[in-house]
Amino acid sequence: MTQLWNFAGGIHPPENKHQSTTRPIQQAGIPERLVLPLQQHIGEPAEVAVNVGDRVLKGQVVADVTSGMGVPVHAPTSGTIEAVEQLPVPHPSGMADWCVVLKPDGEDQWTELSPISDYKLMDREQVLQIIRNAGIAGMGGAGFPTDIKLRPPRDRKVETLILNGAECEPYITADDMTMREHAAEVVSGMQVMAWILRPARCVIGIEDNKPDAIAAMQAAVQGTQIEIAVIPTKYPSGGEKQLIEILTGLEVPSGGIPADVGVMCQNIGTSLAVSRAVFEGKPLISRVVTLTGEALQQPGNVEALIGTPISYLLAQAGLHPEQLNRLVLGGPMMGYTLHSDDVPVVKTSNCVIAATAEELPAPPPEQPCIRCGQCALACPMELLPQQLFWYAKAAEFEKAEHLNLFDCIECGACSYVCPSSIPLVQYYRYAKGETRQQRAEQLKSDHARERFEARQARLEREQQEKEQRRKERAKAAAEAQAKKQAEAEQAAQQGEAVDDRAAKAALVQQALERKKAKAANKTAEAAATAPAPSQETASPDTTGEDQALPDIEALEKQLMQAQGKLDTMQGMLEEARAQQADNVDKLERAVAKNHDRVQRAEQALADARNVLAEQTSSAASE
Amino acid sequence: MWTSFLIAVVVLLALALVFGGLLGFAAERFRVEGNPLVDQIDSLLPQTQCGQCGFPGCRPYAEAIAHGEAINKCPPGGESTIKALADLLDVEPQPLDAEHGVEQAKRVAVIREDECIGCTKCIQACPVDAILGAAKHMHTVIESECTGCDLCVEPCPVDCIDMVTLEPDIRTWTWTPPKPNLIATDRQGAST
């Protein structure tokens, strides 16, 4: 007899298991349409690997996870891919998620399978890969990818491998029936996992309310080293941490995983799936689902293809729609109400309860907490449900977290015993959700701060670099200036510049003198020939012509230069405008200035030409 | 009698000197650079860097709060930030100052990409470098990095940036708190 321990708290709700164990597991058959959600596991959603309109064979991969944690999704039967769209999935929110819709062709034609006769000849990594490629994720409810779970951290040796056959939650009998009917496969699956993990002890924990399953499993483990531990019926002994405590006396540390105490728990359904994946090469495409509740004529267990609509299963079980009050997915303690029966069975769906109003009545109104402490006695995790409730209600999530809110397994024992009918678990779920959200926000804001600070640092650096470059340029210019000056000084020393300037000054002087002389001459001429206006105009004309001719050339040159400059500047402005550069304004001003300059030059040229024309005309008339 | 008096005085003096020296040394040796309060306040602010508080970023506002500025000027943080700040500073939480804006659901900027002319103005405006793009090329917002500060909306010359409210999806959904109390007689009334 295996030594057993006990865990604190726990309750004994009515079991209601007999209704669904009267008939063997039946094949649900192939519905008209299968809806395969891309995320049926914890981790990254799978990516669709087929196209709409493709024909797929039974067992073919329709979606796979390429990066990150996750397992592939397979076609449960042969058929055509009808759509990839957002459809309601089993989720407490009732929201939609991406799904592959498969229209079965009724041929149920298998893809090529590669079963393994002797896994012991293979590498452990290869076997783990087979398990992953078969799409196996924990079938107890969480859906954690099994191959990753079977790879415990290197420093954690798994001493005890536990198969969880407790199935403590009322109504659910899927594991019970699986053990009764597929005992050999369950055991062989466990043997594969044991071979991978090499634990010192393998034990299957089954509650004592399943005598048939116990008998079947005991027969199946004959000749192996697996022990069967019959544990007393108490809710929630099937909780991973509770079962570990019952079977080993070890307590999983807060926030830790079972591997921290050298234990690993696997689900019965998972073990069956592993066995089928290894020995038959079949991926996880179906699971046993309990259909129960008083609104069903024939409650029982069925083996349903993943993706089968729940409405299809309920119709098969003889649903009385008029009696149906509430549809619960999972058990009455931990399950959630489905918003619609038009959702598919997924890898983690173990039970559907079609309850009448008398069976699962609406909860009575919440009354004030009377501090009776029943919840604390019932709590299997030895938490303080009352305090957690106060803090959750007052939105003091940090304080709730200090009281180990995240160790709560949401089993519902506290709500079950509460004389004030307080929906305690709902408060904890809310508090957990809010806390997670706050954490995510905190992470995001820290990230934003990092990015902001990095940007500020970058801008500052750029500014400094600019400043540096500006300084360098200024220095270079100053140096050039100094050099020029030095050269000029040198030249001055040689006396050239002085000469130059003197020569220039002399030229100017000479020109002035010439002009003076001319003017004097002119006045003298004018005085001599008084009535000669034409001459008067003609004489300055000759001088004017002398000056105007080179003037026009110069003006033309000037105009051309200005025009060229304006053109390049306009080009630059256009480019700057297109690039939305900072200097657009500056360029615009510069262009306007140049424009003015060109206009002025044009004006000057035109004036000069007019003068010239006048001169020539007057000269001609003369 | 005088001797014992003197001994007491000398001993106390010696103790005072020793501990004074020790404290002085500790103050120098373990000096805290900067104001740790500012860091604490800054870590509570949502880091949208939106400037709605009237300060150029979250850190300047944190510094201002440390110097006695009101704690209710941060619309993106909303009530929860005010509450956290009130807890930290041990002051009474005040309602959000409507002058600086109202609390809104989480939003992200989305560029209508076919309308984007590639002007880079929004890239220059984004305080967290969440906009990707180059001159004359289409820009796009990296959704996971966007803080929803809407500083990029105003500079856009073609108004192609929308602020889109983030709808909860199946992965961000969380449980709601139980409905407020309803006493039994109310419910009887409600059901009939």
UniProtKB/TrEMBL annotation, chain B:
Q: Which cofactor does it need?
A: [4Fe-4S] cluster
- GO cellular component terms given for this protein: plasma membrane
Q: Provide a Gene Ontology MF annotation, just one.
A: 4 iron, 4 sulfur cluster binding
Q: What is this protein called?
A: Ion-translocating oxidoreductase complex subunit B
Q: Which InterPro entries match?
A: 4Fe-4S_dom, 4Fe4S_Fe-S-bd, 4Fe4S_Fe_S_CS, Elect_transpt_cplx_RnfB/RsxB, RnfB/RsxB_Proteobac, RnfB_subfamily
**UniProt KW keywords:** 4Fe-4S, Cell inner membrane, Cell membrane, Electron transport, Iron, Iron-sulfur, Membrane, Metal-binding, Repeat, Translocase, Transport
| Sequence ranges assigned to domain 4Fe-4S in this UniProt record | 33-91
* Region annotation (Hydrophobic) ranges: 1-27
Chain residues that bind [4Fe-4S] cluster 1: C50, C53, C58, C74
Organism, as annotated: Marinobacter vinifirmus
Sum up the protein's function in the record's words. Answer: Part of a membrane-bound complex that couples electron transfer with translocation of ions across the membrane.
For this chain, the family text in UniProt reads: Belongs to the 4Fe4S bacterial-type ferredoxin family. RnfB subfamily.
Database matches in SUPFAM superfamilies: 4Fe-4S ferredoxins
Q: Which residues bind [4Fe-4S] cluster 2?
A: C116, C119, C122, C156
Under which EC number(s) is this enzyme classified? 7.-.-.-
The cofactor binding remark recorded in the entry reads: Binds 3 [4Fe-4S] clusters.
GO terms for biological process, alphabetical: electron transport chain
Boundaries of every 4Fe-4S ferredoxin-type domain copy: 107-136, 137-166
Q: How does it assemble?
A: The complex is composed of six subunits: RnfA, RnfB, RnfC, RnfD, RnfE and RnfG.
Q: Which residues does [4Fe-4S] cluster 3 bind?
A: C126, C146, C149, C152
Query: According to its UniProt record, where is this protein located?
Result: Cell inner membrane
